[in-house]
Amino acid sequence: MKSYKSLDIKLRPDESIDDFMGGRLKLIQSRKGYRFSIDAILLSEFVSIKRGDIIVDLGTGCGVIPLVILSKGVIGYAYGLEIQPELASQAARNAFLNGFDQKMGVILGDIGKPPLKPSSADVVICNPPYRQRESGRINPDPQRAIARHEIRISLDEILGAAQQLLKPKGRLAMIYPASRLIDILVRMHGFSLEPKRLRVIYPGIESEAKLVLIEAALEGRRGLKLMQPLIDQGDFSP
Hints:
Blueprint: E1 2-3, E2 10-11, E3 15-20, E4 25-30, H1 38-46, E5 54-58, H2 64-70, E6 77-82, H3 85-97, E7 104-108, E8 121-126, H4 142-148, H5 155-165, E9 166-177, H6 181-190, E10 193-202, E11 211-218, E12 225-226, E13 230-231
Parallel strand pairs: 5-6, 5-8, 6-7, 8-9, 10-12, 10-13
Antiparallel strand pairs: 1-2, 3-4, 9-11, 10-11
């Protein structure tokens, strides 16, 4: 391992530090393992955040989602829950590297059994594995496989964790494949989560929908706001 400049930040040989958001954030990531995608950024821009909110990011990876939100300076505190020790270490070091170690805690733990106080979060965020365990080729890299396939976590476990952690009327924000939209909407109702905002993402103006951004409220009233579509990567398009 090596140190990063004068800070007490250690880098493994297989890690790099990348500038993001015009240098406002620096992120330690694996060179060849799991690296965050634009999906995480779109989700961090989509979620409704209020000043002083306590947020929990389920499966935080390198911590990019809470770090982007913290860079806006509005939340009270962020928890990142991650089951993979290498990624949890990256998230913790990224919080320190960006000066948010007093505003962000990283917890090594299982989403299915979140080690946090029930009804303690205003917002739960999750960029989950998109593919069911039995579908498609499993990536030989363990980090990428767990991030992409429901190997260690299922949709029901994610929704159950959100139901447990959220305060009444608290918000869950997720990004999910458009092809599984009905599945997630139906399952949300089974956990007292009422879909309130939905935005469909299209790769191009003439393409079929690829992903959807969904925000639900715990024990919320009925009424879904269908927002304008997002084409390509929105403001982050090349």
